[in-house]
Amino acid sequence: MAWADLWDRSDCRILGDDRAALAMRFSVYHLLIAANPDDPTVNIGAKSLSGEGYRGHVFWDTEIMMLPFFLFTQPAAARALLGYRYHTLDGARRVARDGGNAGARYPWESADTGLEECPIATPDGQNRFYTRDEELHVTADVAYAIGRYREVTGDAAHLLDEGAEILFDTARFWLDRCEDEGERLVLTRVMGPDEFHSHVDNNAFTNRMVRWHWEYAVEVYDELAADHPALLAALEGTLGISRTDRDAWADGARRIVSPNDPECGLIEQFDGYFDRTEVPVTEWDENDMPRYPAGYNHFNCEDTKLLKQPDVVQLMFQLPDDYSLATRRENFEYYEPRTLHKSSLSPSIHAIVGLQVGDPRMAERYFSRSAFVDLDDNQGNTEDGMHIASAGGTWQIAVVGFGGFLAGADGLQFTPELPTGWERLRFTVQWRGRAVAVDLGHTDSVFRLDGAGAPETITVAGEQVVLRPGETVRVPRDGSR
After folding, report:
1. Which of 144, 192, 451, 461 is buried most deeply by CB count within 10 Å?
2. What is the pTM of this model?
3. Quick check: is 195 catalytic?
4. Could you tell me which of 216, 219, 119, 203 has the C-alpha nearest to residue 170?
5. Structural element, H or E, at residue 449
């Protein structure tokens, strides 16, 4: 019965393509067994429960690649995964302190204590890992995950119990880490998601997520001041902050160098990126994925425009409502040909953003790369353990990409664009305590709202549709019903 309930809430069924269906259920199964909703002191290692790769360490993979699956299928597990970040908050404080900064900074690789576990160099000592020192964006990604949890589940209690303390103490870190240049704040010597480039200044992804982090911290501070003043006073006493800090975060969000204009057009990945050497990608491997150009490898792409994985495109993925379709398309079209996808996190993001901006050409290729990374061992390292982030990415390609699913301030939206070989795509999403069963096809979409209460209005291919509890609604692709 327990497994039947898990599958009922979490299954993502692909009809018409048995191989894709197998890969999808393989991904969902491993996600389900990797998270414990009853233990907020543990998280999901990069190889889940399947191998010793990365020594079980936790990355931003959880918040960005895997958490969406749990948010929309197993909210209790999502909260437990966030609970791990609260459990390791003291470790994050020490990481910040060891770096000479105030507040809390989450490490690039985390384990039981929340201290930095990333090795300093490769075993031969020839190559330094600057990710431990410079890939700071994980701290903003944790804040982003806290905000998404509240938005999707409606669970305000998490903010009161744990989330606000994390948001405020990590917001303090950013303010201390940034440098003041008068009219603007800058963030120097960092590394964005694209790990080919270290020691860069004003990485667009990192700076924009810091701005988001500060804005959300201000929003939560104001909410607590209005509705829970005693709790806010207690937090201020614990953290040693006041309204002055809140105002500094608001000012920092206004002044930090970041791409804020929805119509900003092509975004430079970091200061000076456009001046780097252009190295064309001319060869693809047996999986139809880019090869390193001759003479290049993971450690010598610094001076080029080559990307390991999405960076600006990652920003388009995480904040789709903040940029116009034209801006997102321009950035996707520029950075896609320069991305080598040397991370298992990469293909799913490009598949989803490509579909969102109207460029589906590579989506099925990237779905295969993500879905079969371990079933086919297409990266040649499955013996170290499965790529659990790809499992989360595979679910997201199907639901967010091909299903055209978005959830945010405007409610639930669906703009399906299924592969020609798929007959139907069926899944269930949890939205603020109620389940919406979704059945998408090429000629129609079918929805059912479970639970009680008021109707829910969703948007299907631009048309508003009212779902009443217990009723099934069919929406033809031509809009007639």
Report:
1. 192
2. 0.97
3. yes
4. 216
5. strand 444-449
